[in-house]
Amino acid sequence: MTALDVTRDAAVAHVTFSAPPMNIVTTDVFVELRDVWKALDKDPAVRVVVFRSGDPDFFLAHVDINMILEAPDDGRMPMQVNPFQRLCADVHFSSTVSIAEIAGRVGGGGSEFCASCDMRFGALGRTVVNQMEVALGILPGGGGTQWIPRLIGHGRALEMILGAEDIDAETAERWGYLNRALPADRLSAFVSEVAGRIAGFPPEAVALAKRSVGNAFTMPILDGLKQESALFAEAIRSPRARAALQGFLAAGGQTRDAELNIVELLRNL
């Protein structure tokens, strides 16, 4: 029985979690998620992947506790990236855009996975985040201590991780964990619109822009600026970029009336 359902809408892939009774990340769910991601990431026709849940109450609950209890221990201190961390890093550093549409409860490793995605959107009154590990005598081991502070800062990350309290959608949005918290009945349509819009832009520009933004968290600013300059030069050489720039001017770009409605102008290029 599959735990993930994959559908396509042009260049957007939707991955829906469906692993009763509550979308716990078992070994089988993890392996399927890893394999689905690898396949989608290698597909040049897929530019954006949206993760969502078929369960109205749970996005991803957490990693199966039995996996943790049964993990082999040879007494040594491992100093390498573990498989769950590797999956999250692959998602984060890919040129494919990843969006988590969180319309229910997410916790533990499920939250770590969401934090590694490029964007997260939640539902008012339904989205709840709980980083539960410290209350169980452990700590986030799927990358949460690295991804979450990059989203919400040191103090709030410690409140989330050490406190093990429920964080509602409004708070998660205010802290920066969620890009936006929307009414539940608007969430899917909004996320689909964002994903479709990004997927319709020149893919080289999307990939290079994502890479340059990522450099802000891994490079000193002067190095990041140099890389931005190099990536800009790479982008401008693309025939699609030239065509888009010329199309912008032909459609009325750099005129007052057109640029007062620039979103519509860009959508129609």
TrEMBL record:
Alphabetic keyword roster? Lipid metabolism
Q: Which GO terms describe its molecular function?
A: catalytic activity
Gene3D superfamilies per record: 2-enoyl-CoA Hydratase, Chain A, domain 1
- Pfam families per UniProt: ECH_1
Q: Which InterPro entries match?
A: ClpP/crotonase-like_dom_sf, Enoyl-CoA_hydra/iso
Look up keyword Cytoplasm and say if it applies.
Answer: no
Q: Does the keyword Lipid metabolism apply?
A: yes
Q: Which regions form coiled coils?
A: none
Gene Ontology terms: biological process: fatty acid beta-oxidation
What is this protein identified as? Enoyl-CoA hydratase/isomerase family protein
